[in-house]
Amino acid sequence: MDTHTTQDDRRTTFGGGHTATPTGPLAGVPADAGRADRLAEIARYDLANPGLLAHLDAAATRAVTALAAGSSLISVMLGTAARVLAAAGPVTEVVGPPAADLCARVVEIGVHSVVDRSHGCLGVPLRSPRGHVLGAFCVVGTGPREFSDAELDWLSGAADDAATVLQFYRDDR
């Protein structure tokens, strides 16, 4: 596994081929750190609301176009399984490895983006206003690829926008 992170680098790189289940410490963050809080936070959202899903589908479609990606997905992590809320592009590239691996790693790390250059994948955290990493916004390419800082910034902004939309579908009781 080719994994690195520094204070100056917002990216962690891995070679893929991992299970979608977080497998332990990565960059000093235990896989289950805040898991109960994250799951409790996710439970407060109406994730089946058609209005929410339409907004997120549109965001996933914009990501494919803006980043010239093959596919994109927006997911939340429920325990060790990802629930895909929105996707664009060929489904086979979105729901299986390497995308599932990537989303699990984004949630596991939770502090910056994850890049899988060998599959042309980029993922960023989807955060609640309380700072919980709920899931990930990922794009999957059609082959090996590098992502620019501008592309990373674009996807990070799109993830922030998606998190804002999620707030309209949250029970604040």
Topology of this protein?
Elements: E1 11-13, H1 35-42, H2 50-66, E2 71-78, E3 81-88, H3 91-95, H4 99-109, E4 113-116, E5 121-127, E6 133-140, H5 149-167
Helix pairs in contact: 2-5
Describe this structure as you would to a colleague.
The structure is a single chain. With 173 residues, the protein is α+β, with helices and mostly antiparallel strands. It has a domain of 119 residues: GAF domain (Beta-Lactamase). Helices cover 35% and strands 22% of the residues. The chain contains 5 helices and 6 strands. A 6-stranded mixed sheet has the order 1-4-5-6-2-3, sandwiched between helices. α2 packs antiparallel against α5. The radius of gyration is 15 Å and the shape is globular. It starts with 10 loop residues before the first strand and ends in a 6-residue tail after the last helix.
Write a compact overview of the structure shown.
By secondary structure, this protein is α+β, with helices and mostly antiparallel strands. 35% of the residues lie in helices and 22% in strands. The termini are far apart.
CATH third-level topology of the domain at 55-173: Beta-Lactamase
Based on helices, strands and strand pairing, what is the structural class?
alpha+beta
Fraction in helix: 25-40%
Q: What Rg, in angstroms, do the CA atoms define?
A: 15 Å
Count of separate DSSP helical elements: 5
Mean pLDDT across every amino acid position: 75
N- to C-terminal distance: 43 Å
Task: Give the number of DSSP strands.
Answer: 6
What is the CATH-assigned architecture of the domain at 55-173?
A: 2-Layer Sandwich
